[in-house]
């Protein structure tokens, strides 16, 4: 009879994300993830089979995680623009040091060079854009943004500003990633506000 799982796959993937932030995927080991999750490395092999499969599971989860972040922001904030700010800040919460940003960029290397990882990265990027588009549409309907605002184009601009602000913060420092993202999004959105 199999023993019951005491640690969920979600908890293991959260531990994996933390370990990737500190080490990057190239230096990541199953032993490091196991230590972070409080498990034996053999448990990870039993559940995921390999480091690659574990990283693919993390990549696959990114789209769902993005949806959950935006759902929570939508529930907690009465305004579409406030929800955009809250969701982007929450998505950046896992990056607090330039070294953690380097770990994320290491994952981006996988996304750019491996078709399986790229497919998951594209799905996550499309999900983020769709979520931002929906919130900007809500902002137009609520009178926060001017009628006729190109919400699809503006959503793409939000995505570019979010990613660019993270990179700029990692290089230049100063404040937190969330503060820089907020400032850049305010600069982008201000001309469209009603």
Automatic annotation (TrEMBL):
Keywords: DNA-binding, Repressor, Transcription, Transcription regulation
Annotation: DNA-binding region: 29-48
SUPFAM superfamilies, per the entry: Homeodomain-like (SSF46689), Tetracyclin repressor-like, C-terminal domain (SSF48498)
Segments forming a coiled coil: none
UniProt domain HTH tetR-type: residue ranges: 6-66
PANTHER family, per the entry: HTH-TYPE TRANSCRIPTIONAL REGULATOR YJDC, TRANSCRIPTIONAL REGULATORY PROTEIN
Molecular functions per Gene Ontology: DNA binding
InterPro entries to which the protein is assigned, alphabetical: BetI_C, Homeodomain-like_sf, HTH_TetR, Tet_transcr_reg_TetR-rel_C_sf
Name of protein: Transcriptional repressor
């Amino acid at each position: 009879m199999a023993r019951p799982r005491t640690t969920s796959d979600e908890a293991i993937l959260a531990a994996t994300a933390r370990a990737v932030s500190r080490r990057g995927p190239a230096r990541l080991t199953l032993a490091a993830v196991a230590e972070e999750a409080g498990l034996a490395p053999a448990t990870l092999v039993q559940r995921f089979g390999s480091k690659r499969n574990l990283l693919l599971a993390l990549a696959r989860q990114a789209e769902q995680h993005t949806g959950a972040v935006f759902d929570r922001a939508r529930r907690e904030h009465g305004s579409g623009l406030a929800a955009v700010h809250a969701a982007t800040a929450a998505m950046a919460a896992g990056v607090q040091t330039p070294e953690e940003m380097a770990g994320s960029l290491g994952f981006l290397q996988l996304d750019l060079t491996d078709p399986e990882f790229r497919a998951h990265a594209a799905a996550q990027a499309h999900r983020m854009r769709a979520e931002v588009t929906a919130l900007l549409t809500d902002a137009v309907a609520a009178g926060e943004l001017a009628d006729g605002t190109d919400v699809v184009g503006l959503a793409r601009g939000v995505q570019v500003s979010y990613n660019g602000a993270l990179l700029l913060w990692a290089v230049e420092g100063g404040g937190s990633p969330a503060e820089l993202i907020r400032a850049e999004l305010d600069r982008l959105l201000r001309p469209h506000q009603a």
